[in-house]
């Protein structure tokens, strides 16, 4: 959590950091990923059999090694929009017997050569947990129950035995399951009204929790500040042992929201992720409102927010049906850093966040047949994932503000947009970490950093200007390392992300 005081632009900015003020625990799951059968994310991305860079499973080893460096806790699969016509049984068993199907989300053909068992094996290779999304379009509840049984079943039952027949004796113990994806969207197969979705979601949740009470079920929200979010939370966040639920455990554990941001102009681009901060605040209030109105007992675990699709994405610049391969700039990298600052500041409410996507599709990591490219957006993700863990701590920022256009426009009337966007954490190792994004395209800010002591490690992500990219065959944006004595002021360079790190 960072509080803010507005200064005139001529005044010296001040960042005050208070490691003794632990606000909330940062869930490591905010650094999670997402893989969808879309473009080159799966085929040619994480799975590329026959390529010299792939292992015996067809997994790209260069991609595996890069992703291991991010320490990704959870990866969502198989969508996204794709899951609304996906039948998991098509993707298990002997590969020569798997059917190819028309794929309606991105208008391609799905060969099903990569399915549940391949994804689980890939997750084990990365060192991450799977998160699966049920087909709420053409799928059935029986099919969903079968998928859970296949993944988690331990008894002498049909789908558990099918898993064993397919070569996996032990259960996968998949915890995270989404009750559909963007069911409100006109692009969805079997788009639903909020009333139809809420009825279906609670009925599926009851059956799924009967089969496996340990599941973490994730409700399909919209953008947070919508009537869809209010209605579905109100209808589905019911007390255990209520008229709608005989379960001894809550039916809904998390509420999903999605948001993508972008602008062709730098300052609207880099301030746009602040819309996510307000969306989280509104969603958190709607969760509380539903609990109050439904008289949920205070000892029933309060759901958290699953921000399971987020990123910088201009769907005109990188069309989804064409593979959505974005070429990211330094401006986009700084927007990603502001996104990550938001998740750290809002750690009390965010139980998971999944950057969309992990490889090739609007991704910080791109593949060719010969290797990989780490886009500009890779570096803030790497820095945050490595260091911004532990506890969100109290911090206060005093600086000038950007007063121009925002995208979305409502951000201008809802919140401040300071030149220095800040989050602060205290790691389990006793180190304070402060992430500072100077969003200004033109001005360095000489600032006081109150609370910094000793030798301070400094990591800086910047470039010659906000338009530079790493997709031109040259690494224009990377991490520069240095130190600072913590005496005097510190100059935060224009259009930069700076991470300051010192022992508390």
Automatic annotation (TrEMBL):
Ranges for domain Alpha-L-arabinofuranosidase C-terminal come to 308-496
Look up the domain of life of the source: Eukaryota
Q: Which GO terms describe its molecular function?
A: alpha-L-arabinofuranosidase activity
Enumerate the catalysed reactions.
Hydrolysis of terminal non-reducing alpha-L-arabinofuranoside residues in alpha-L-arabinosides
E.C. code: 3.2.1.55
Q: Which InterPro entries match?
A: Alpha-L-AF_C, ASD1_cat, GH, Glyco_hydro_b
Pathway(s) this gene product operates in, as recorded in its UniProt entry: Glycan metabolism; L-arabinan degradation
Q: Name one GO biological process term.
A: polysaccharide catabolic process
* Matches recorded under Pfam families: Alpha-L-AF_C, ASD1_dom
Its keywords, alphabetically, are: Carbohydrate metabolism, Glycosidase, Hydrolase
Family, as annotated: Belongs to the glycosyl hydrolase 51 family.
Q: What does this protein do?
A: Alpha-L-arabinofuranosidase involved in the degradation of arabinoxylan, a major component of plant hemicellulose. Acts only on small linear 1,5-alpha-linked L-arabinofuranosyl oligosaccharides.
Protein name according to UniProt:
non-reducing end alpha-L-arabinofuranosidase
């Amino acid at each position: 959590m960072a509080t803010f005081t507005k200064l005139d632009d001529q005044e010296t900015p001040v960042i005050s950091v208070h490691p003794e003020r632990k606000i909330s625990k940062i869930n490591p799951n905010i650094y999670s990923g997402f893989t969808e059968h879309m473009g080159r994310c799966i085929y040619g991305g994480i799975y590329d059999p026959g390529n010299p860079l792939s292992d015996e499973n067809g997994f790209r080893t260069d991609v595996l090694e890069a992703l291991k460096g991010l320490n990704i806790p959870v990866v969502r699969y198989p969508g996204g929009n794709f899951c609304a016509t996906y039948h998991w049984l098509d993707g298990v068993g002997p590969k020569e017997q798997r059917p190819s199907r028309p794929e309606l989300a991105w208008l391609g053909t799905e060969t099903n050569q990569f399915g549940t068992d391949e994804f689980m094996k890939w997750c084990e290779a990365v060192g991450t947990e799977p998160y699966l999304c049920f087909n709420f379009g053409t799928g059935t509840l029986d099919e969903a129950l079968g998928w859970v049984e296949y993944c988690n079943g331990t008894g002498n039952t049909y789908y558990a035995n099918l898993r064993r027949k397919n070569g996996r004796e032990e259960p996968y113990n998949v915890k995270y399951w989404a009750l559909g994806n963007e069911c409100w969207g006109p692009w969805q197969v079997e788009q639903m009204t909020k009333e139809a979705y809420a009825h279906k979601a609670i009925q599926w949740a009851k059956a799924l929790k009967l089969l496996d009470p340990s599941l973490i079920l994730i409700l399909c929200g919209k953008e947070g500040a919508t009537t869809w979010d209010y209605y579905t939370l109100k209808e589905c966040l019911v007390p255990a042992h209520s008229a709608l639920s005989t379960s001894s455990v809550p039916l809904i554990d998390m509420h999903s929201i999605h948001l993508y941001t972008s602008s062709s102009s730098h300052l609207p681009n880099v301030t746009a992720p602040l819309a996510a901060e307000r969306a989280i605040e509104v969603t958190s209030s709607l969760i509380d409102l539903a609990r109050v109105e439904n008289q949920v007992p205070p000892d029933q675990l309060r759901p958290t927010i699953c921000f399971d699709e987020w990123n910088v994405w201009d769907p005109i610049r990188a069309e989804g049906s064409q593979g959505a391969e974005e070429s990211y700039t330094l401006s986009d990298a700084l927007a990603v850093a502001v996104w990550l600052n938001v998740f750290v500041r809002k750690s009390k409410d965010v139980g998971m966040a999944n950057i969309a996507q992990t490889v090739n599709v609007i991704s910080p990591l791109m593949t060719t047949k010969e290797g990989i490219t780490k886009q500009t957006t890779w570096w803030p993700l790497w820095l945050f994932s490595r260091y911004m863990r532990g506890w969100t701590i109290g911090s206060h920022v005093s600086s000038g503000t950007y007063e121009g256009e925002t995208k979305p426009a409502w951000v201008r009337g809802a919140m401040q947009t300071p030149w220095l966007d800040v989050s602060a954490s205290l790691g389990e190792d006793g180190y304070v970490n402060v992430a500072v994004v100077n969003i200004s395209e033109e001005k360095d800010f000489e600032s006081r950093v109150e609370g910094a002591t000793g030798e301070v490690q400094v990591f800086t992500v910047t470039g010659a200007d906000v338009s530079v990219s790493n997709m031109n065959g040259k690494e224009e944006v990377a991490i520069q390392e240095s130190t600072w004595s913590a005496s005097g002021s510190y100059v935060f360079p224009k259009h930069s992300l700076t991470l300051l790190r010192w022992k508390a």
